Amino acid sequence: QVQLVESGGDLVQPGGSLRLSCAASGFTVSVYRMSWYRQAPGKERELVAEFTNIGGSPNYADSVKGRYTISRDNTENTVYLQMVSLKPDDTAVYYCNARHWLVYDRNYWGQGTQVTVSS
Q1: Cβ-based burial of 8 (10 A; exposed 0-12, middle 13-18, buried ≥19)
Q2: Phi (first) and psi of residue 61, to 5 degrees
Q3: Measured between alpha carbons, how far is 47 from 63 in angstroms, rounded to an integer?
Q4: What are the tens digits of pLDDT across the range 87-104?
């Protein structure tokens, strides 16, 4: 029932752009705190972008500010991550996360999508 499916990961050159999608089913994304994480080899999973309230105000990690944009389409029940000016350090598996704003244990993860930035 509850499912998050990421897509859009690819191999791109430094300076390139990519848009990741997170398609949700079994729940409505507008009532969940949606966010994007990434995990690079040998590193811990880190938060890169999130909505800070139900209105959709965004927050970003310092390393991606000005380059990443999180957005959502409520009619499609999908969250996006637009990435521009990609760097090799952006290489990671990117995960979509959904956490209910009030019910603590309603916390879901997607399977991840690989982003590789290399020349």
Answers
A1: middle
A2: -65, 150
A3: 11
A4: 999 999 999 999 999 898
